[in-house]
Amino acid sequence: MTAVAFGHTVEIPVSGTAAILKNNRIYVPVRFLSEGLGLRLTWEKQAQTVSITSK
Predict the structure, then answer these.
(1) Positive or negative, the Cα torsion across 17, 42, 48, 30?
(2) Are 31 and 41 contacting, i.e. CB atoms less than 8 angstroms apart?
(3) What separation in angstroms does the CA of 26 have from each of 20, 43, 46, 48?
(4) How many CB atoms are located within 10 Å of the residue 17 CB?
(5) DSSP per residue over 1-40, as a string?
(6) Is the full-model pTM beyond 0.85?
(7) How many Cα atoms are found within 13 Å in the side-chain-facing hemisphere of 9?
(8) Among 2, 19, 24, 35, which has the minimal tally of Cβ within 10 Å of its Cβ?
(9) pLDDT tens digit sequence for 4-50
């Protein structure tokens, strides 16, 4: 399966990354989206936030 995000087509692995449709919105795992676009994702445990930056 593929998805298009910000003009980039990325392959969606079948297991573990299912998108969810809820209240007319589509939710996708942020790690899948960021890594699929060639970005770096880091989890900041103390602040409990995710940072997405370019590599």
Answers:
(1) negative
(2) yes
(3) 6, 22, 28, 23
(4) 15
(5) -EEEETTEEEEPPSSS---EEETTEEE--HHHHHHHTTEE
(6) no
(7) 2
(8) 24
(9) 777 878 777 666 667 788 999 988 888 877 877 889 999 999 999 99
